[in-house]
Structure prediction request, 173 residues.
Amino acid sequence: MSIILGVDPGSRITGYGVIKCVGRQQIYLGSGCIRTSSDELSLRLKQIFDGLSQIISQYQPDQFAIERVFMAKNADSALKLGQARGAAIVAAMNADLPVAEYSATQIKNSVVGTGRAEKAQVQHMVSALLKLPAPPQADAADALAVAMCHYHTCQSLVALGGRANSRSYGRYR
Prediction:
C-alpha cells in the first residue's frame, strides 16, 4: 500500500490530489486547490509551500509526483511556474518524500489514452477511474491525474522488472 500526492503547480492556483494504492486498486483520499492571495510572488510561493506542507502532514503520503514545466509562450509565466514547482518540491523534500516528475503529455496519455487530451477529458476520466460522484475542479483533477500517472508508471516498472527477471532466470538456468 502506498499513498501518492500528485501536484499540478501554478503560481496562482496549485492543484493537489491524494490517492491510496492497494494492489491494483486506486482509492481517492482527497483533492483540492491552494489558491494564493498575494500579488507578491514571494508570498505566493510561501503560501504554496505552507499549503503543501500542511497537506503532507494531513495525508502522510510516501510518494510525491509533480507535473514538469512546459515551455509557455510567455517566458515570465514559465519562470513563475518553475518557481511554484520549486516551492512544492521543497515541501516534499522537507518531508523526505521521493519526487517524481512527469510531462503533461505523459500524464494525459496515462489517464486518458492520448497525450493531447483536453482538461474536460482528464476531469471525466479521473472521475470515472476513481469512482467519484462528480468531476473534481480542473486543477484538482490534473493533480489526481499526476498521482495516477505515477502509480501507472510504477506498476509498469514493477511488471517490466518481473518479466526481465523471469527472462534472465530462464536464460541462465
About this structure: The chain has five helices and five strands. Residues 138-172 form the longest helix (35 residues).
